[in-house]
Amino acid sequence: TSSIMAGENTGTGGVVGFTRSLDPPTQEWAQQQFQNALNLVDTSQISPPNWASCGPKSYYFPHINTIFTGVPKTGCSNWIEALLRANGDLKEQLNPTQVRKVHGGLSSRHRMKNARYEYDEETLVKAFKFTVVRNPWTRIVSGYRDKLSSEKTQGGSLRSLGISIVSKMRHITDHDELKKLYPTFEEVVRWVVQSNETINPHFELQFTSLCISKSQVRYDFIAPLEYAGSLSQEIWKKIGAKTSLLGSYDKSSDPRLQKSAQYAREWLSELDKELIEKFYEIFRVDFALMNYSNFTDPDFPLPIF
To answer: In the prediction, which pLDDT does 10 show?
Structure first.
């Protein structure tokens, strides 16, 4: 166990070093914080005029009259799977190892780019609209583990991207040699910081996936992933659906003790300060979305409210 990992189980229900409870923030606070974050940037260039113009990450499920924007690496595959069951597209829960199937034909007709031809803006405006966001530090760690490392996970590996990163960072061109190599976490963080071109959606800014407005927050409910267990139950009640999330997101396990948080504390503490600061500056709006804690905070990765 890394010495910098905050908190050890005391065996009495408490955790050494933790200072805040696991009660989620109110929606009033979440909505205001979300708006404060968006005020940090000029959203006019990325603000679609209506829901029908929202990007490929937004979905409309007509039978439950719900719009969901799935930000990559916020558990969006699990959320979409649960919504497909609630909407009647799936009769039973998928095996967690098959959850990637939800991004194909199962959900394509619900993507806003397709749904907009069947439903008018008046219908879409009346729908219940929600999204999920995540601490950027645990999000990049999760993206690295799931997509670019040699670790075996449920997600689909982006092997060609990993090879490209190794080639760029280590100046290796021999393909046979590259096929054996995986990027380190530090190399992935440097690649994100150095990339001027559009990078993979799993590592892009979260707020650019959202359907946002210049004047107001368009979502009725904003869920920090760190509280998915409890907040998902609130969401299902609001849409009148009997469904649940797959895997760990539906458990009441403490997010401060989950693997991505533990790895984040360890790996990020080993990076140089300048690289950390550059990453933070690039993702400052994402950090501000829920006033997310730094990896040095004892209650990392929870929002501060």
So the answer is: 32
